[in-house]
């Protein structure tokens, strides 16, 4: 054997040894099937995204994605164990295998993707950080908050964004660090701080729960880009592909007019080739993922396509009443679209 081939063989052996040692290399799909449940990490309570209803059932924009994924993989949208995680505990829980996927208003950043070793499967909401304040402060802009006390969740990108914003504008502030949205909301309502900062969607959700919502305002400044999406551990490409294409199926379903109400009928076959490929009446896309042909049918049937989920929990059909904004389909003025099912 030549020296070059010997070195190459050693390098390959080392790579295989390292790969075998990585926790993400475990076949997550097999583990989920063996458990008979999907362990999905969610926010402990954020209106519109993840909250419990009167029956104690978890629901919301991000919980709906978990159910779509469970339906695709396990054949039942209710086979989900929801694990509530704070900003501090979410990443250790995912890295250690406590959860199979994290669907918890998490911003896709360089360090989380590369340094922490996670794979974001896509962007399901384009957000940005803002400020919620008491109207009695007489403040109309975040640039007027010099010396204000600000409630902020720890373990989030909002801490760095806040520091950057105040530094750039040459003003000071007093941070009031809290671990969860519920704690931050309670502190803000008790006037332990003048202002609460987080993603604008979260501020809208918090504001919608106040009995005197008119006494509070969200300032016009958006101080960051916050592309939110589900994430998994590095090293299991099959599981990342499944998570990615379940999200893509929900987005494509909106684009092509496939809904919760008509998906079963469309799954019998249509004149549209991409719908047929996605719903399994043509081709073998399911087999490529290690799933059956009907995986996308079940994902869409769980709670509907992307628009149906958005409208129900965040948009016009919800207490939040958020516009689609950048999260609208590309054809409607937004930047949301899925790669093709081909």
Outline of this structure?
The protein has 14 helices and 14 strands. It has helices spanning 3-21, 28-35, 61-74, 90-96, 110-114, 157-168, 181-189, 200-208, 237-256, 263-266, 273-279, 285-289, 295-303, 306-313; strands at 38-42, 51-52, 58-59, 80-84, 101-102, 118-120, 125-127, 129-134, 148-153, 173-178, 195-199, 216-218, 226-228, 231-233. Helix 3 (61-74) crosses helix 9 and helix 9 (237-256) crosses helix 13.
Provide key terms for this protein:
single chain; 342 residues; alpha/beta; five-stranded mixed beta sheet; three-stranded parallel beta sheet; 14 helices; disordered N terminus
Task: Write structural notes for this entry.
The chain is 40% helix and 16% strand. It is an alpha/beta fold and 342 residues long. The strands form 5 sheets. Strands 10-9-11-8-12 form a 5-stranded mixed beta sheet, sandwiched between helices. Helix 3 (61-74) packs across helix 9, helix 3 runs antiparallel to helix 13 (295-303) and helix 9 (237-256) packs across helix 13. The protein is globular, with a radius of gyration of 22 Å. 45% of the residues are buried. The model is unreliable at 1-25 (pLDDT under 50).
């Amino acid at each position: 054997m030549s020296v070059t081939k010997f070195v190459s063989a050693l390098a390959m052996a080392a790579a295989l040894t390292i790969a075998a040692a990585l926790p993400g290399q475990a076949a997550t799909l097999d583990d989920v099937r063996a458990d008979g449940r999907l362990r999905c990490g969610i926010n402990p309570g954020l209106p519109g995204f993840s909250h419990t209803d009167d029956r104690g059932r978890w629901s919301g924009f991000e919980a709906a994605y978990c159910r779509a994924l469970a339906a695709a993989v396990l054949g039942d949208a209710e086979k989900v164990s929801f694990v509530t995680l704070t900003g501090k505990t979410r990443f250790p829980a995912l890295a250690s295998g406590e959860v199979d996927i994290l669907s918890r208003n998490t911003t896709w950043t360089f360090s989380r993707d590369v340094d922490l070793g996670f794979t974001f499967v896509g962007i399901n909401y384009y957000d940005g950080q803002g400020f919620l304040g008491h109207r009695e402060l007489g403040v109309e802009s975040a640039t007027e908050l010099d010396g204000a006390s600000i409630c902020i969740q720890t373990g989030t990108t909002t801490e760095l964004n806040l520091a950057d914003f105040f530094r750039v504008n040459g003003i000071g502030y007093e941070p009031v660090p809290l671990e969860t949205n519920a704690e931050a909301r309670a502190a803000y309502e008790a006037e332990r701080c003048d202002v609460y900062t987080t993603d604008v969607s979260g501020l809208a959700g918090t504001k919608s729960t106040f009995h005197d919502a008119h006494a509070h305002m969200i300032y016009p400044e958006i101080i960051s880009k916050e592309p939110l999406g589900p994430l998994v551990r590095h090293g299991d490409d099959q599981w990342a592909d499944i998570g990615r294409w379940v999200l893509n199926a929900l987005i494509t379903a909106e684009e092509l007019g496939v809904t919760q109400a008509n998906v079963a009928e469309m799954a019998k076959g249509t004149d549209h080739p991409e719908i047929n490929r996605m719903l399994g009446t043509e081709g073998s896309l399911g087999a490529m993922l290690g799933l059956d042909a009907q995986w996308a049918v079940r994902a869409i049937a769980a709670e509907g396509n992307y628009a149906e989920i958005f409208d129900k929990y965040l948009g016009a059909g919800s207490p939040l009443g958020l516009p689609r904004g950048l999260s609208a389909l590309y054809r409607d003025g937004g930047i949301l679209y899925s790669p093709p099912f081909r």
